[in-house]
Design goal:
342 residues
Amino acid sequence: MDGEVTYRRKFTPGLAPIHILNHTSLLSSSISHAHATTPLTKLILLALVWLPIFGIVSAIFLLWNSYVTWVDLALLLTFFTLCGYGITLGYHRMLTHKSFQAHPWLKTFLLICGSMAMQGPALHWAATHVQHHANSDEEEDPHSPLKSLWHAHAGWILDNFKPDIQRYAPALLKDPIIVAINNTWWLWVFTGLLIPAAIGGLTAGYFGQSVLLGSFGGLVWGGFVRLFLNQHITWSVNSICHTFGKRSFETTDASRNNWLFGLLAMGEGWHNNHHAFPRSARHGMHWTQPDSSAWLIWIFEKLGLVKDVVLISQHRIKARLASQPDPEAESIILPVPAEQRD
């Protein structure tokens, strides 16, 4: 089909779609994964994830009413939430997987919030994530723990990785809203720092306190600390959720469902579910799997702000639970919509 780029994984009975791999590459991958997930590396990863968070909580407790105020915490929680959903709803489910279609103003708002999370321009983020799905836990996966758990968490960012947008996200290049926000990414990053600083300063001035200190507190907690938490939790989905947790579905990667990050990452921690059904708007597929991003999509749909929400039928879920091939397998790289083709 004109303008369409397809990428499908081959079906193997009893398994999810996979690439055609020879015996040597399979053996090499299994050895690499065993080396990357030794008890020591798991311990290091857990320390990397939890010690900084523990430090932030301790700092808040120790500095309360001295250098940290309720305004600082309110800014931290507000911008953490906005930027978090900007990633989960905007960058991930809407942009990368087309799990739903949003009204133009909501689409713009979600992509701006995602940009403020400082995890890269929208096109870069989407192409990287599609490449991850197309090669999950294989050599071409940008952030697989097969190399090391540190690499999966944050090391891959330091490896001068450059996403191939033309190959992995060509459809998005046809969307003027996406391209415009992508090209002004740094503007939104700085906006995400300036707004909490301005709110902190104005609030401090209103209560007769130092505007300078209020602005600084807003910048630190609503800006820098929020950036750290947003990025750390997103990276943990790449590392923790490919190492720790349970698997509901048979997939060709090491993806796992992790209850804790299902909460912290606003539903993204149900990662095995997501790899089984990448286009699903709902990652938590049972009432015991809370998915606040899916709840927001449901609310937006009821308000008429989103449409074409992709949900997975019980027929497909039962088939995958029985380790059967998906009866309605999805393309990893989505086609360019007809109305956006040249």
